[in-house]
């Protein structure tokens, strides 16, 4: 029986199922009093503002003290409240009191608008989250100024599903897994703090479920959320609840079972070893990666360092981030990909020209030749951080051998300069190429011997091979990794890697889907890099498989001539062998 239509579909943010009465967080609308003050009131207002910051800090310290242990939840909580410590927020607000003669609430509100307007200039999800952070902090200070009780989740009844327009770290940090069964928010993305913290606390969450959700749900009304698929059911019928209860039981059993695999080697029953790595985009995700048993980072996308701001990140700032990632993961390898900007990801700080076909334009390495200073700054930061751990550098969007040589020459030249200036630079920094253009795939035999490793970026390789825009829903049905043309390319890349004696990894989404594992194992992909929480499941399937049976399946599907037939055959076989694991992954009800 297929699952009923959900009431809403949001973004899966933290895996798991939650069933419970809704606890709807309706934030009271705050009407900020706006008043011009007299000269003799200025000192008093400025002091009132300062005192409100101090009281808020005290409240947050109390919440912080209640967070169990240290780790990611505490880190995220602290990161948000750096805004409270940030002198600009306080100083600018105080100036609004002193220079413009505004009352404390208005002065603070004016500064909030200014900061949020800065963030708005960048159409980037990560950036919007940071704008929301400042909003949360300011709201708390406003509550103190206006003599209101701080709002939050401390009164949420046990077992409830919290429903809110948005949630900040201050809200999430106040709850435990025992108290809150799940979160669902109208706004947010996978990089929202609520998403990161919920994953860390092990509480299922769906974000970005769309506006109007809070208005649609009454307190106490039954809600079911599926944090794997993003489905949300409001007031579901008895059969749906029963179905999800059953799913939840299965999930808990499977999760418990999966956690046993976290620290076991990723090896098939007949001894073929694969390396399980994590894809991450921020330092905060390393905790998740290591907790789920990642043996290093296979792809650290550095674009986000550039996207969340109006200027470009300095060498020092980048050095600090790379050093932290390398230290946290040592002694494991960390593959840091140099920036893949351009195309649809254009940060304000770069001011690149508009392009008619951005996916075919000045992306990845193509942009470095146009903006050498940007590339040099990033490479210098990487080289200086290299001694903190085991760095591997990965170059995106390579389509000619010359491009890769250019990257190699630049890296070597900068390393020599830095050493001459007295910096410590590791003398073993493998340099690899992303294979994500058909050009790179087809000439993998020429590329492989010039690189130290290859990483297959199936997200782009597929879009360029099949001429299917990876973001276009209308042609999504064609976006099929099992297309024979794509499979043959992956096969060719693996063969080229073997001949050259280098590792071939895969960091596109294809790597993290359990249904694909046998095919990748049989093709000889040595490293799989994926979302951290997929690692235990993939590892379990690998440990229950033999490379022999995987090879048999591969041999069969390579004789088939359409993506549909291949998918059907692979799924049939994998579902027969791993029914529970595949259902768990798909979030099937
Ligand atoms: C890819 O193309 O498969 C890849 C991993 O890179 P991105 O998704 O960042 O383009
Ligand atoms: Mg790519």
Question: TL;DR of this structure?
Answer:
With 589 residues, this protein is of the alpha/beta class.
**Can you name the CATH architecture of the domain at 8-27 and 154-257?**
3-Layer(bba) Sandwich
Number of helices: 25
Tell me the helix content.
40-55%
| Spatial extent as radius of gyration | 26 Å
Q: What general form does the structure show? A: globular
Beta-strand residue percentage = 5-15%
* Mean of all residue-level pLDDT scores: 89
Bound molecules: phosphoenolpyruvate, magnesium ion
Topology, number of strands: 16
The structure class reads: alpha/beta
How do the strands line up in the largest sheet? 1-8-7-3-4-5-6-2
For the largest beta-sheet, the strand count, sense and barrel status come to: 8 strands, mixed
Give a verbal description of the structure:
The chain is an alpha/beta fold. Among the domains are: 8-27 and 154-257, Phosphohistidine domain (Glucose Oxidase, domain 1, 3-Layer(bba) Sandwich); 39-145, Enzyme I, Chain A, domain 2 (Orthogonal Bundle), CATH 1.10.274. 48% of the residues lie in helices and 13% in strands. It is built from 25 helices and 16 strands. An eight-stranded mixed β-sheet has the order 1-8-7-3-4-5-6-2. Strands 9-10-11-12-13-14-15-16 form an eight-stranded parallel β-barrel, surrounded by four helices. A hairpin with a 4-residue loop joins strand 7 (222-226) and strand 8. The protein is globular, with a radius of gyration of 26 Å. The mean pLDDT is 89.
